[in-house]
Amino acid sequence: MEQLAAAISKDLPDPAPLVIGLLTGSFIFHADLVRAMSRLNVHSRVDFMAVSHYGATTEPSGLVKIVKDVTLDVSGRSVLLVDDILDTGRSLSLARDLVQAKGPIWLRTCVLLDKPSRRTVPIDADHVGFEIPDVWVIGFGLDAGGEGRALPYVAAVEPEG
After folding, report:
1. 126 classed as catalytic
2. Does residue 61 contact residue 77 with C-beta atoms inside 8 Å?
3. Which of 11, 21, 123, 154 is deepest in the core (most CB within 10 A)?
């Protein structure tokens, strides 16, 4: 976490960015990242968006919907958009485009996990914790049908059958 926070801190144009987490999966990563950045004298404002395309399943529906938009003003701000995992790219791409339309002066993306083999939308995160293969993972905020979010680590889930 410290290395990722340091890389982001070097990229920031100012020491007081708005860090927007994509709920619900990013909440643990988002909190740890903001705390790691604060140890580097980056004093973030925090907000959240919620987008969804999985529902209660582990297969994406293909339709992404905004469940909660940001509440803080993004215009003229430096913004870091944080997500748990970059998979198909649909959620992060939609969220990035919505935030960009609000007029930030600087916008970057950060994900804990990147799964490029599943990408259907052309997007790359600016900052990535780890690249993973095409496996379903839970823990550290990620879930499978609502289960596993509270695990203090990331683990692959074996398919049923």
Report:
1. no
2. no
3. 21
Reduce the DSSP state of residue 69 to 3 states and report it: coil
Of these residues, 87, 114, 126, 134, which one is catalytic? 87
Q: Where are the domains of the chain?
A: 2-157
List CB contacts of 125: < 8 A, sequence separation 6 or more: 83, 86, 92, 109, 110, 111, 114
Q: Is 2 exposed, middle or buried (0-12, 13-18, 19+ CB in 10 A)?
A: exposed
pLDDT at 54: 53
State the Cα–Cα distance between residues 33 and 52, nearest whole angstrom.
22
2-157: CATH architecture? 3-Layer(aba) Sandwich (3.40)
Separation of CA 55 from chain center: 17
The rounded average pLDDT for each run of 10 residues, N- to C-terminus, in the chain (161 residues) is 97 96 95 98 97 59 81 98 96 95 98 97 97 96 92 90 62
